[in-house]
């Protein structure tokens, strides 16, 4: 069994990894928020989602967070009237991605705050390790 400071570091590191992947997926959604299909009637970009899972680390005796899967949001596409778009159907409507910028910005903010919280845990654990080393020296 490892000490509690090392466990805290590994748990926080797993959170950093998970939130980093989440931010990558949200960034991809934002970048493709206006990506339509290339031909009339073709589907545009479909929003991606992230699912987390808890994984037991038997050596640590603690739960770590992991990405369970990166899936797709199966909600309907929005239709937008844009007759000049190459992806427009015969009536001039284009299927637009099912990306809602308010949801993406909210997800990005939450992922960023979680990332910062895990980073703070790592900083505090490092500080405790340094204090312990200083105490042992003197």
What does this protein look like?
The protein has helices at 4-31, 101-137, and strands at residues 48-57, 62-72, 78-81, 93-96. A two-stranded antiparallel ribbon has the order 1-2. Helix 1 (4-31) runs antiparallel to helix 2. A hairpin with a 4-residue loop joins strand 1 and strand 2. The protein starts with a helix and ends with a helix. It is elongated and about 80 Å long. The longest helix is centred in the last third of the chain and has 37 residues, at 101-137. It is α+β, with helices and mostly antiparallel strands and 138 residues long.
How much of the sequence lies in strands comes to: 15-25%
Biggest beta sheet attributes? 2 strands, antiparallel
Q: What's the overall average pLDDT, rounded?
A: 94
Number of strands: 4
Distance between the termini: 28 Å
Shape: elongated
Portion of residues in helices? 40-55%
Number of alpha- plus pi-helical segments = 2
Structural class: alpha+beta
Strand order of the largest sheet: 1-2
Low-confidence stretches: none
Query: Could you state the oligomeric state of the chains shown?
Result: single chain
């Amino acid at each position: 069994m490892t000490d509690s400071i090392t466990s805290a570091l590994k748990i926080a590191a797993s959170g950093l990894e998970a939130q980093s992947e989440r931010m990558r997926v949200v960034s991809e959604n934002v970048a493709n928020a206006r990506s339509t299909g290339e031909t009339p009637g073709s589907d545009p970009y479909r929003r991606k989602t992230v699912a987390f899972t808890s994984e037991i680390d038997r050596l640590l005796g603690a739960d770590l967070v992991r990405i369970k899967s990166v899936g797709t949001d199966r909600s309907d596409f929005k239709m937008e009237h844009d007759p000049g778009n190459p992806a427009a159907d015969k009536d001039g409507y284009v299927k637009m991605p099912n990306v809602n910028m308010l949801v993406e910005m909210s997800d990005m903010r939450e992922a960023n705050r979680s990332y910062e919280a895990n980073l703070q845990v790592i900083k505090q654990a490092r500080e405790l390790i340094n204090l312990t080393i200083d105490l042992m020296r003197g």
